[in-house]
Amino acid sequence: MSDEKKELADRIYSQLENVIDPELGVDIVNLGLIYEVNLDEENNVHVKMTLTAMGCPLAGTIVSDIKNTLSELQEIGEIGEDIDVEIVWSPPWDKSMMSRYAKIALGVHES
């Protein structure tokens, strides 16, 4: 990955920290919901992520928030057209995927 692409990928992760899980009140990056971010040659973005639970009623809201927040980056094109969000269930999410910040914010104690 070129330095330019790496820098853009870092900025994408920073932008994704602005997307808050409405139920938990913590951003999706620190919750460990983002599994992968890929950029193609035209800077189209593919986000592979999961949710804390199958059947999450807020999945549509979170996907929409991701597309809205990433469309603010000038290098990425029109909303929804150049941003693909794929929700996967493998590996399943668990609390160990959260950052230290998220664990503290949610009062999760490591055992």
TrEMBL record:
<dbReference type="InterPro" id="IPR034904">
    <property type="entry name" value="FSCA_dom_sf"/>
</dbReference>
<dbReference type="InterPro" id="IPR002744">
    <property type="entry name" value="MIP18-like"/>
</dbReference>
<dbReference type="InterPro" id="IPR052339">
    <property type="entry name" value="Fe-S_Maturation_MIP18"/>
</dbReference>
<feature type="domain" description="MIP18 family-like">
    <location>
        <begin position="10"/>
        <end position="77"/>
    </location>
</feature>
<dbReference type="Pfam" id="PF01883">
    <property type="entry name" value="FeS_assembly_P"/>
</dbReference>
<protein>
    <submittedName>
        <fullName>DUF59 domain-containing protein</fullName>
    </submittedName>
</protein>
